[in-house]
């Protein structure tokens, strides 16, 4: 069994994701000893760089874990169909959705989010102290590459009063194969009309945040997008929730982009995958403001994006005081919860149970 995981980090630099594997706060070291004489193969913390890695074929068991990078449906389906004799164990912190349609897959919920939480707490002395009612901006949007929803949200806010929004993007506009369809004419007028800004966003990046492409180096919220703004559009790495080949993907992918505003003390606009709100509520967070729950369970990517854009119109139409009144109780609850140890304790309890169930399943 070949394991790419924390204790092999120095030996397998090319197989790590952009997050240093030694920071994963999950003990999987026992897997190596268990698997020494087993007909199995494991790849821990899979990243997009693994698409070119040749996976040994013909094993009876494959153990794959997604922690810091998005679930790659095409890559996984290739492994699944190329190995019809095998069972697959998946470790991740996502709702499985249509992954449960594959009969040879067993899913264990293993949560890595304490890594983000520790980084944020180490890099920030506490939440933003400026009251919501005194903050200058209504909504902020920070992005690296303007792929998926991030392009449309940025394009939408370009037309807003600059005294009410904070915008930053620094690597221009990118259409990738997996999200190209969302840049076709969708039939949703509020989406399609924003395509006029493709060239402008491609050639005029604005890097107000001095973005560093490593989430653990990007946990600070000493920025107007958090310090002086009521609402942050989380602009997650993965926005799309459904593909023709797979169906509804395991979701949601949650990174520091979601955790930072919760710790900073911002209300959030869920510009991410389906079920983001639902997953965070399981940690105890509350999102009682009106726009939060309208589209959380919507897996149609174009329809969900159209609702998000309509919500931006509604947010911008409200006064600062109205926004503050709508958000205040949820924001205060979430800040208190985030800076306590309750979420980390829940994560630890969940992982102890899940790893125990995994050991029992494997007979380890």
Q: How are the SSEs placed, and which strands pair?
A:
Layout: H1 30-35, E1 40-43, E2 61-65, H2 73-82, E3 87-92, E4 105-109, H3 114-123, E5 137-143, H4 149-158, E6 165-169, H5 189-192, H6 198-203, H7 224-227, E7 229-233, E8 242-243, E9 247-248, H8 256-264, E10 267-269, H9 276-282, H10 301-317, H11 320-339, H12 342-362
Parallel strand pairs: 1-2, 2-3, 3-4, 5-6, 5-7, 7-10
Antiparallel strand pairs: 8-9
Helix pairs in contact: 3-8, 4-10
Describe this entry's structure for a reader:
The protein has 364 residues and is an alpha/beta fold. The protein folds into two domains: 6-112 and 344-362, no CATH class; 117-341, 3-Layer(aba) Sandwich (Rossmann fold), CATH 3.40.50. Helices cover 34% and strands 12% of the residues. It contains twelve helices and ten strands. The strands form three sheets. A four-stranded parallel β-sheet has the order 1-2-3-4. The chain has a four-stranded parallel β-sheet with strand order 6-5-7-10, with helices on both faces. Strands 8-9 form a two-stranded antiparallel ribbon. Helix 4 (149-158) links the parallel strand 5 (137-143) and strand 6 (165-169). Helix 4 runs parallel beside helix 10. The chain is globular. Residues 1-21 have low confidence and may be disordered.
Summarize the entry for a quick read.
The chain has 12 helices and 10 strands. The protein has 364 residues and is an alpha/beta fold. Helix 4 runs parallel beside helix 10.
Rounded to an integer, what's the Rg over CA atoms? 21 Å
Summed over residues and divided by their number, the pLDDT gives a mean of 85
The level 1 CATH classification of the largest domain is Alpha Beta
The total of helices stands at: 12
- How many angstroms does the end-to-end distance come to? 14 Å
Write the H/E string, N to C: HEEHEEHEHEHHHEEEHEHHHH
Please tell me what the overall shape is.
globular
Helix content: 25-40%
Order of neighbouring strands in the sheet with most strands: 1-2-3-4
Structural class determined from secondary elements: alpha/beta
The CATH architecture assignment of the largest domain turns out to be: 3-Layer(aba) Sandwich
Largest sheet: 4 strands, parallel
Query: Within the CATH hierarchy, at the fold level, what is the topology of the largest domain?
Result: Rossmann fold
Count of spatially separate domains: 2
Count the strands? Answer: 10
Low-confidence stretches: 1-21
Strand content bin? 5-15%
Oligomer: single chain
């Amino acid at each position: 069994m070949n394991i790419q995981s924390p204790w092999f980090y120095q030996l397998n630099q090319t197989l790590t994701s952009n997050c240093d594997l030694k920071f994963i706060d999950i003990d999987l070291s026992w897997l190596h000893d268990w698997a020494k004489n087993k007909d199995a193969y494991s790849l821990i913390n899979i990243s997009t760089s693994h698409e070119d890695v040749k996976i040994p074929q013909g094993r009876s068991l494959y153990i794959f874990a997604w922690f810091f990078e998005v679930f790659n449906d095409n890559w996984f389906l290739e492994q699944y169909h190329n190995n019809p004799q095998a069972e697959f164990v998946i470790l991740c912190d996502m709702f499985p959705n249509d992954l449960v349609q594959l009969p040879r897959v067993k899913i264990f919920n293993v949560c890595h989010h304490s890594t983000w939480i520790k980084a944020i707490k180490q890099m920030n002395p506490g939440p933003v102290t400026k009251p919501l009612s005194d903050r200058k901006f209504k909504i902020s949007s920070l992005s690296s590459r303007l792929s998926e929803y991030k392009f449309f949200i940025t394009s939408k806010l370009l037309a807003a009063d600059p005294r009410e929004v904070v915008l930053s993007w620094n690597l221009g506009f990118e259409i990738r194969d997996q999200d190209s369809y969302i840049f076709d004419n969708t039939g949703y007028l509020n989406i399609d009309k924003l395509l006029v800004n493709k060239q402008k966003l491609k050639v005029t990046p604005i890097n107000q945040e001095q973005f560093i492409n490593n989430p653990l180096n990007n946990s600070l919220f000493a920025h107007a997008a958090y310090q002086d703004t009521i609402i942050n559009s989380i602009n997650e790495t993965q926005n799309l929730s459904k593909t023709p080949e797979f169906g509804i993907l395991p979701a949601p992918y949650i990174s520091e982009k979601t955790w930072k505003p919760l710790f900073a003390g911002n209300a959030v606009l869920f510009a991410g995958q389906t079920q983001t709100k639902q997953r965070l509520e399981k940690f105890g967070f509350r999102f009682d403001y009106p726009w939060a729950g309208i589209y959380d369970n919507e897996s149609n990517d174009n329809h969900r994006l159209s609702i998000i854009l309509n919500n931006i119109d509604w947010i911008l139409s409200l006064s600062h005081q109205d926004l503050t009144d709508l958000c205040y109780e949820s924001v205060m609850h979430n800040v208190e919860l985030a800076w306590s140890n309750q979420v980390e304790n829940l994560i630890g309890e969940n992982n102890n149970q899940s790893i125990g169930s995994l050991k029992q399943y494997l007979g380890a």
